[in-house]
Amino acid sequence: MQLLHNFFSFLKKEFHNCNNYCKKVSSQKTSQKYNAQRVKGLYDPLSKEFFKLSRSKLESFLRCARCFYLDRRLGVGHPPGYPFSLNIAVDTLLKKEFDKCRAEQMPHLFCIENGLDVIPFKDDLIDSWRDSLHGGIQYEVPNTNLMLYGGVDDIWVDSKTNELIIVDYKETSKIGAISLDSLNDEQRASYKRQVEIYQWLLRKNGFSVSNTAFFVYCNALTCLDSFNKYLKFDISLLAENGDDSWVESAIMNAYYCLQSIEIPQSAEKCSYCQYWNAVTKHINNK
Ligand code: SF4
Fold it and tell me: Does the domain at residues 50-166+179-213+242-274 carry the CATH identifier 3.90.320?
């Protein structure tokens, strides 16, 4: 009987993982059907309902208030890029791997090798926290009608302090060792903000959270002789020291931006705007 129960639990878990992978890929595929002027799901300053603001949209506000406003308030967003199917595949497999350790409440070999005393966090909420499309970690921000949410890749527990640790999987393919210092300033700052927002969200949900977050950084090696239907990765565990003290004021600024009737100024450096200004110049000269 127990064997049958375990078998069905296994099937359920596998189905859940595959389903999540398909949902992620298909959501990226369907986002290819670009709608240049959306009319649904826009922020309404007069609404009493909470408006769901994702972590990535808060990041977009920090990069450029104008594009954020055009997108969330006026329904005109950037055209989407191509789906990162290979990255999603690596994420999915890593999740399966860490889920096995979560089920047994055992440390992953990779963490032991890196001298970390951590185990994957086991909780009924974990699947919903990892599903940014249908849940994520959520918090209704007081004095606003915004609900901030974000989907984490994983959460570990520090076995000594019992604090939760934010974990994010990253994929790349670069020659040489991977370190946070090897990222360009903008990318590093963006990754740091990403984990700091998750830390803030978990704290607002009443959890004790470590300031240290980890990136499980997978680097696809191109130094091999052939492909042979197989990608080999080096994996590095990179620690980032977070400070979420800026998050609350950033959300309030995004809120004031959405409440405004003025379209904000654009960011100073942005290749999209440079492109658009160049196009406009040519069109106006005709
Ligand atoms: S600078 Fe222009 S194109 Fe770039 S993000 Fe802002 S409004 Fe959008």
Answer: yes
> Tell me, what amino acid is at 257?
C
pLDDT digits (tens, 9 = 90+) for 251-280: 999 999 999 999 999 888 888 888 888 999
Question: Ligand 1: which of 186, 269, 273, 277 to mutate, most ligand atoms within 8 Å of CB?
Answer: 273
CA angle, corner 253, sides to 199 and 154, nearest 5?
20
Work out the pLDDT band at 286, boundaries 50, 70, 90: confident
Task: Give dist(CA 159, CA 36) in Å, integer.
Answer: 49
CB 197 within 8 A of CB 254: no
Q: Residue 130, CB half-sphere, CA atoms under 13 Å: how many?
A: 30
Q: Residue 64 CA: which ligand 1 atom is closest?
A: 6
- Pocket around ligand 1 at a 6 A CB cut-off: 64, 66-67, 266-267, 270, 272-273
Ligand 1 atom, smallest distance to 272 CA: 3
Beta bridge partners of 118: 158
Token reading at 277 = 């200004």
pTM: 0.88
Substitution candidate for ligand 1 out of 57, 74, 269, 270 with most atoms within 8 A of CB: 270
